[in-house]
Amino acid sequence: MFAQLTNLLKLRIGVIMMLTALVAMVVTPGQAPGVAATIVLALAVLISAGSAGAFNQYFEVDLDRLMPRTRNRPFVTGYFKKSPLWLLYIGLLLVAGVVPAALVINEVAALYIFLGAFFYAIVYTVWLKRRSWMNIVIGGASGSFAVLAGAATVDPNISAIPVLLALALFFWTPSHFWSLAIAKHDDYVKSGVPMLPVVVGNQRTALIVMFNSLILVTISIMPFFYGLGWLYLLGAVSGGGYFLYHNYLMIRDPSPSVAMKNFFASLIQLILLLVGAVLDVLLIS
């Protein structure tokens, strides 16, 4: 049961969003929030992201049946029976995330948490995914809202550093996901989803990923000029350089195996960026 719920709620994505929110909270200038607000922030982002992930699977059963990567999702296998009652459960889960954030933290943080779930569930899943290659670009803003929620926990008036981190995550998402889409190109062709590699081909997508990643790395370095120190810069440059190197390899060979390596390189880049930010604040500031 636990494994099925983990799958349904897409907890791996939720954990990433939770961590970005907590890092944004740590690096935002101002009075550090108390233990209660920190715990509520973490759980609110995780729960709200889980509600959006569950809605995504509820809405996309027909697509999930067509792709090997998603055939084991619980609505596809029948482990969970799809019924309208699930929409009530999913809605209550979202409420359980957003309302405590409004009561314990502030309304601005709660709004960002809600918008993160809304963009993934409605903007990405319902509106854009089956209609436009821009799906992951606009829908991917859901991760940026987690960063803003973490910053708003400290100060509802968002400052430069969390805005730059939110922008970095906004540009990270397409590079991350388009790499996976290159690796799973045939699955998306079969499902009819217009992911960028299906629309323009793997080679051109690899070039677009490199261009997008250059913007990502440039933005990720900028917080250094707004107050973060050399440890953060080290994480941003080393992670960014590692990711750009794998982008270059993918341009040379946009095969599934190389694209998957680039996909994992994007995770390394994000980890080094976040770890650098936290260590910089804890050890230097």
Structure report:
- The protein is mainly α and 285 residues long.
- The protein folds into two domains: 1-156, Tetracycline Repressor, domain 2 (Orthogonal Bundle), CATH 1.10.357; 159-285.
- The protein contains 15 helices and no strands.
- It has helices at residues 2-9, 11-27, 35-59, 61-64, 74-77, 85-105, 107-128, 135-139, 141-154, 160-183, 185-191, 196-200, 202-221, 230-252, 256-283.
- α2 (11-27) runs antiparallel to α3, α6 packs antiparallel against α7 and α14 (230-252) packs antiparallel against α15 (256-283).
- The longest helix is centred in the C-terminal third of the chain and has 28 residues, at 256-283.
Name some characteristics of this structure.
0% strand, 80% helix, mainly alpha, flat, Tetracycline Repressor, domain 2, 2 domains, 285 residues
Discrete helix count: 15
Indicate the low-confidence ranges by residue numbers.
none
Outline type: flat
Considering DSSP H and I runs of 4 or more, what fraction of the residues is helical? over 70%
- CATH fold descriptor of the largest domain: Tetracycline Repressor, domain 2
- Count of domain modules: 2
Distance between the termini: 44 Å
Using only C-alpha atoms, the radius of gyration works out to: 19 Å
What's the CATH C level of the largest domain? Mainly Alpha
Number of strands: 0
Q: What is the overall pLDDT average?
A: 95
What are the secondary-structure elements, in order, as H or E? HHHHHHHHHHHHHHH
Class by SSE composition: mainly alpha
Strand content: under 5%
Major β-sheet profile: none
